[in-house]
């Protein structure tokens, strides 16, 4: 079971999120049949999106869309305050040779010309939306830039996904360290210095380090403490009713075509790839009122 921890540190001047997403990302990647480069892009996005979800409260939700103009198309990730995440990408069948530092070439798959957009559903009629340019295509830096430019929260975002030769996930995880308002210059300088010499998070997860161990490595065990933890997992909330609602919003002539030509309709969830067959009688019901 994957686990996320939340903590605070540096005289309570920073907050910390650290998560193991190995099982979560493996489930998404296997549902989408993603090739390694695409799998790493989806996994990094889901890992960051998951941590963003746990920055919310109660029933709040967040959707992150990363559209960098590259061959994988848009990546869409949904998550919530309960540690549930789901995601998909336009084209999961993308793979490239390793880049010049021997890593999956996520930037080439994602592209560097586009936007990272965030939509938060924070209950009632309130929505928050923010969008920043893709600055890297490696995703971690793009989230970091988003937090800084759109939410004015300087953040270190480190994400790593390792893919096995059979396209399953060997290890996946990451952390976010956010500098709270009023943090001292010393804290910011310390974090900058640590960030420069930090072992890449993909190396740390490859060594099997826990979310706590990774933060210890990143900023020093004496500089933070854990506040709480929660299990996290892949979860999709699609259902036959949701598909029926979506079909009900179509033009009635389209529904009649489904009934006459296909004798029903097959609904396919983008997020989890589950397929649901909608019976002819259920379609007739939709146009009867
Ligand atoms: Zn679904």
TrEMBL record:
Disulphide connectivity of cysteines: 236-238, 269-272
Modifications the protein undergoes after translation, according to the UniProt entry: Under oxidizing conditions two disulfide bonds are formed involving the reactive cysteines. Under reducing conditions zinc is bound to the reactive cysteines and the protein is inactive.
Any one Gene Ontology BP term: protein refolding
Pfam families: HSP33 (PF01430)
InterPro entries assigned to the protein according to its UniProt record, in alphabetical order: Heat_shock_Hsp33 (IPR000397), Heat_shock_Hsp33_C (IPR016154), Heat_shock_Hsp33_N (IPR016153)
Keyword Magnesium tagged: no
MF annotations from Gene Ontology: protein folding chaperone; unfolded protein binding
Subcellular location: Cytoplasm
Entry GO terms, CC: cytoplasm
Keywords, ordered alphabetically: Chaperone, Cytoplasm, Disulfide bond, Redox-active center, Zinc
Hydrolase among keywords: no
Family: Belongs to the HSP33 family.
Function field: Redox regulated molecular chaperone. Protects both thermally unfolding and oxidatively damaged proteins from irreversible aggregation. Plays an important role in the bacterial defense system toward oxidative stress.
Name of the protein described by the UniProt record: 33 kDa chaperonin
The encoding gene: hslO
